[in-house]
Design brief:
This protein is of the alpha/beta class. It has 2 domains: 5-33 and 283-412, Lyase, Ornithine Decarboxylase, Chain A, domain 1; 49-280, Alpha-Beta Barrel (TIM Barrel). Helices cover 29% and strands 25% of the residues. The chain is built from 12 helices and 21 strands. The strands form 3 sheets. Strands 4, 14, 15, 16, 17, 18, 19, 20 and 21 form a 9-stranded mixed β-sheet that branches. An 8-stranded parallel β-barrel has the order 5-6-7-8-9-11-12-13, surrounded by 7 helices. Strands 1-2-3 form a 3-stranded antiparallel β-sheet. Strand 17 and strand 18 (351-359) form a beta hairpin. Helix 2 (35-48) runs parallel beside helix 9, helix 7 runs parallel beside helix 8 and helix 8 (208-227) runs parallel beside helix 9. The structure holds ligand LLP. Ligand LLP binds at residues 59, 61-62, 80, 103, 163, 200, 203-204, 238-241, 274-278, 314, 318, 374-375.
Length: 424
């Protein structure tokens, strides 16, 4: 999925809307998203699996800003929620409980009770103990909970170790060889219904092998369970499809489908997909302003932005690469050179990019950090007492503020504020 952010003679544009103009109105730092790019990415995924009974459950963890979640619902997506908070956001965005799957290692008793009481589509259980806790709670509530067991296939997703989840050394799921017994031993428990099997081997996967192997494991187990007489209704392949952060071609939706469909032909069961990044990453950019520049002896040049790891944590946390482009127009033949583009946080890891070839940067110039729509705003923090940035959605040649900038009052509203000290 190519970026909707295009450099033009007049500066950076998002679907024809000037990024400089909107950033001047809402201020920097800010997130900008293209609704068209979200729609295109969703439809490309949906089309890739056409002809195979399937349902996309957008993984809210990638970006759960209400307006975007609503957009996904309007497109016909289901939701994948990873916490009680995400379930509630999905519901606020108009999803019915039946259209939500609830995943997540370490669901609390309260979260499970809420999910069961609401009648969540499927709870993806992470352990035998969790299946039992779901059964006990459902019994107490007089409900029958739909459950799938998440299996850990011991597959190396080949992505960053922090976001690989399918290895035995990872905390996720139950070993695949133990899963069959979990289903067999609990299939007659009246307060649960085993409706599926779940797998998710990692995120930002860029080669077909791990996805194909995950599908094979899933289908093998699903068919074995059906042979055991477990009346499954779906197989959930999880998410994980990577994007091309550095513009080198990686897997796309069609390649994901091509990798898994041969395996899926061995089962009549409908499949669920839980993509997050592949739907929203390319649709978003973080726009920031240069607040300082400096050159060290030897020539290393820094551009310090008004955004940092508090707004976009991926470079600091995973050493992730994001393209950085100027927002203003770049004169033909303008001098370019290497810049270290860094944030203002008191951490040496607060770096967006080193040795980035960019035109001359001056204080007040603006730059955009691309492919920031997934795991960007959602991973923001108030570290250094910084306020969460606003978010803007570009749609149909115009833009809307979908989240305002957080204020100090928003943040301090949670804290005890003794009278007498204020203002002194
Ligand atoms: N389903 C499950 C069970 C997951 O754990 C995840 C992501 C997804 C679906 C969606 O995966 P996606 O299609 O987005 O790859 N913060 C990291 C990514 C963490 C992913 C966690 N789980 C990053 O910025 O790269």
């Amino acid at each position: 999925m190519s970026s909707p952010f295009i450099s033009t003679a007049a500066g950076l544009a998002c679907d024809g809307v000037s990024v400089a103009d909107l950033a001047s109105e809402v201020g920097t730092p800010c997130y900008v998203y293209s609704a068209k790019a979200v729609r295109d990415a969703y439809r490309a995924l949906d089309a890739a699996f056409e002809g195979r009974a399937h349902r996309i459950h957008y993984a809210l963890k990638a970006n759960s800003t209400l307006a975007l979640v609503r957009l996904l619902r309007e497109l016909g997506s289901g939701a994948d929620a990873n916490s009680g908070g995400e379930i509630r956001v999905a519901e606020r965005a108009g999803f019915s409980a039946a259209d939500i799957v609830f995943t997540g290692v370490g669901k609390t008793a309260d979260e499970l009770a809420y999910a069961i009481a609401r009648g969540i589509g499927t709870i993806n259980a992470e352990s035998a103990g969790e299946v039992d806790r779901i059964a006990a709670r459902a019994l107490a509530l007089g409900r029958v909970a739909s459950v799938a067991v998440r299996v850990n296939p011991d597959i190396d997703a080949g992505s960053h170790p922090h976001i690989s989840t399918g290895l035995r050394s990872n905390k996720f799921g139950v070993p695949v060889e133990e899963a069959r017994a979990i289903y067999r031993e609990r299939r007659d428990v009246g307060s649960i219904r085993f409706t599926g099997v779940h797998i998710h081997v990692g995120s930002q996967i860029t080669s077909p092998g791990p996805l194909a192997r995950a599908a094979r494991t899933l289908v093998d187990l699903g068919e074995a369970l059906r042979a055991d007489g477990v009346p499954l209704e779906h197989l959930d392949l999880g998410g994980g499809l990577g994007i091309a952060y550095d513009e080198r071609r990686v897997l796309d939706a069609a390649a994901w489908a091509a990798a898994v469909l041969p395996e899926l032909r061995r089962t009549p069961l409908p499949i669920l997909l839980e993509p997050g990044r592949a739907i929203v990453a390319a649709a978003g950019a973080l726009v920031a302003r240069v607040v300082d520049t400096k050159t060290y002896p030897g020539g290393r040049r820094f551009a310090v932005l008004d955004a940092g790891m508090t707004e976009l944590m991926r470079p600091a946390l995973y050493g992730a690469f994001h393209r950085i482009v100027p927002v203003g127009p770049v004169a033909e033949g303008a001098a370019v050179g290497p810049w270290d583009v860094v944030g203002p946080i008191c951490e040496s890891s607060d770096v967006f990019g080193q040795d980035r070839v960019l035109p001359e940067l001056r204080v007040d110039d603006r730059v955009a950090v691309l492919d920031a729509g997934a795991y960007g705003a959602v991973m923001g923090s108030n570290y250094n007492r910084r306020m969460l940035p606003p978010e803007v959605l570009v749609d149909g040649g115009t833009w809307t503020l979908i989240r305002r900038r957080q204020t100090l009052d928003d943040v301090l509203a949670l804290e005890t504020q003794e009278a007498g000290c204020a203002g002194s």
